[in-house]
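Whiteboard transcription, Tuesday session. T.W. wrote the C-alpha cells on the left side:
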C-alpha cells in the first residue's frame, strides 16, 4: 500500500511540472513587446543569458517538447524582427550590413547553405543599391581562409545591385572547412566597415556552430560596438554562449541567439524575416544577357523598346518598357499608353501603370512620360493643371 501511495505522489509531481511547462509554452508571446516583458512571462529559458548552464531543448520528441520549440522560435523571432525592422527604418535608407558565415569543418556543406539562406532571407526586404543598402559577406574558417566574397561597402558602385548579389555573387561563395577563426573574421569586418558611409546604420551578423580559436575575438567586437556597429550573434549547437553574449550588442539577451540546430535556426529566420516583397524601384542594366532567363528562347527576351533591369528591392531581373509605355517588357509586350495618360516607365505592369492626366479634356501626343506631356484639347485653354473652355464669340 505504501509503495502504491508513493507511486501516486510521484505521478502527481510529474504531472504538475508538465502543466507548468505547458503554461510557459502557450503564454502569449507573439505580441510586440520588449525583452523584459518576455522575461516576466516565463520565457527567459529561450534567451542567451551569457553562461553555460542554460537548459538545452531537444529538437524532436513529444508534443510538449515540440510546442516549447515552437514557442521558442516565436519569442526569439519577434525580438529579432524588431531589431531588423529598426535597421530598415533608417531615414536616409543608408545601411551597411556585414555577414560573417562560419565555413569550419564542423558546419558541413548543407548547414553552410543554411547560413547563406539566412543572408538571402534577411536581405529580402532591404533595397540593395548604390544609394541604399550596401552588403559584405565574409566566409571564415582557419586563419588562411577568411575570405571577403562580397564587398559593396569598400567599393560602392552602380553595378553592385541586388540581382547580381542574389543570383551570381552569393551562389559563388564556397564552403572550405577548417577551424573557427572568429577574431580574424571580425578584423576583416572592421576593415570593411571603415569604408562605410558616415551617416549610415551599420550592423554585423555573426553565425557560428563552435568555439572560436586563433585568438580572443572580444576586444575586436568591443571596438566595433564603440564605433557604432550593432552586432548580432547566432550560436548553433555548440556555440560558446558566454563569448557570443559578450560579443553581441546590449542587452545581450536581445542580440545573441542560441539555437539547438540549423533546423531551428532556419525556423527562426522564417519566423522573423517573412516579408511580402514590394515592387520597389528598378535599375536599368547595360547587359541584356541578365534577362535571358526570362523566356524559353533564352535570348532576346525583352521587347525591342524595353531595357533589362534589376529590381533593387525584389532582387529579380525584369524587362522594363520605356516611359510612355506599359507591359511586362517581354518581347512584343510594350504598348503605348492610351491617349490622355502617361507613364514614368518605373515599373513593369498592365495598363494601370499609365497615369491619367489631371483633366478629362487633356490629351497626349505620342509617348507621354510625365504630366507635362498632357495638353488641353482644341477649344480648351490650360489654366494650371486644368482645361477650361474658350469663350466663343457669336456673329
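and on the right, the sequence the group agreed on:
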Amino acid at each position: 500500500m505504501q509503495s502504491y501511495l508513493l507511486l501516486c505522489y510521484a505521478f502527481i509531481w510529474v504531472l504538475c511540472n508538465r502543466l507548468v511547462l505547458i503554461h510557459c509554452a502557450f503564454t502569449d508571446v507573439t505580441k510586440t513587446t520588449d525583452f523584459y516583458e518576455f522575461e516576466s512571462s516565463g520565457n527567459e529559458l529561450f534567451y542567451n543569458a551569457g553562461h553555460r548552464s542554460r537548459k538545452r531543448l531537444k529538437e524532436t520528441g513529444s508534443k510538449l517538447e515540440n510546442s516549447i520549440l515552437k514557442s521558442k522560435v516565436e519569442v526569439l523571432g519577434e525580438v529579432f524582427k524588431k531589431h531588423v525592422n529598426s535597421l530598415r527604418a533608417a531615414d536616409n535608407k543608408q545601411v551597411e550590413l556585414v555577414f560573417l558565415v562560419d565555413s569550419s569543418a564542423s558546419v558541413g556543406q548543407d548547414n553552410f547553405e543554411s547560413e547563406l539562406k539566412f543572408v538571402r532571407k534577411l536581405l529580402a526586404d532591404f533595397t540593395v543599391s548604390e544609394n541604399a543598402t550596401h552588403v559584405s559577406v565574409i566566409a571564415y574558417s582557419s586563419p588562411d581562409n577568411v575570405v571577403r566574397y562580397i564587398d559593396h561597402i569598400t567599393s560602392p558602385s552602380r553595378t553592385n545591385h541586388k540581382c547580381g548579389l542574389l543570383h551570381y555573387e552569393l551562389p559563388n561563395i564556397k564552403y572550405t572547412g577548417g577551424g573557427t577563426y572568429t577574431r580574424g573574421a571580425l578584423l576583416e569586418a572592421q576593415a570593411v566597415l571603415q569604408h562605410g558611409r558616415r551617416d549610415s546604420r551599420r550592423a554585423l551578423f555573426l553565425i557560428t556552430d563552435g568555439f572560436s580559436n586563433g585568438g580572443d575575438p572580444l576586444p575586436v567586437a568591443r571596438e566595433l560596438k564603440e564605433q557604432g556597429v550593432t552586432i548580432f550573434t547566432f550560436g548553433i549547437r555548440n556555440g560558446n554562449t558566454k563569448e557570443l553574449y559578450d560579443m553581441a550588442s546590449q542587452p545581450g539577451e536581445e542580440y545573441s541567439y542560441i539555437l539547438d540546430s540549423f533546423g531551428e535556426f532556419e525556423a527562426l529566420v522564417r519566423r522573423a524575416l517573412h516579408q511580402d516583397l514590394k515592387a520597389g524601384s528598378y535599375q536599368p542594366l547595360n547587359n541584356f544577357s541578365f534577362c535571358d532567363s526570362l523566356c524559353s528562347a533564352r535570348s532576346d527576351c525583352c521587347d525591342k523598346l524595353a531595357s533589362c533591369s534589376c529590381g533593387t528591392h525584389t532582387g529579380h531581373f525584369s524587362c522594363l518598357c520605356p516611359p510612355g509605355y506599359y507591359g511586362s517588357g517581354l518581347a512584343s509586350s510594350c504598348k503605348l499608353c492610351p491617349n490622355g495618360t502617361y507613364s514614368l516607365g518605373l515599373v513593369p505592369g498592365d495598363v494601370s501603370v499609365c497615369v491619367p492626366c489631371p483633366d478629362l479634356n487633356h490629351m497626349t501626343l505620342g509617348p507621354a512620360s510625365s504630366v507635362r506631356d498632357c495638353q488641353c484639347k482644341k477649344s480648351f485653354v490650360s489654366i494650371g493643371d486644368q482645361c477650361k473652355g474658350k469663350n466663343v464669340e457669336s456673329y
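Someone added at the bottom: Residues 282-388 form one domain.
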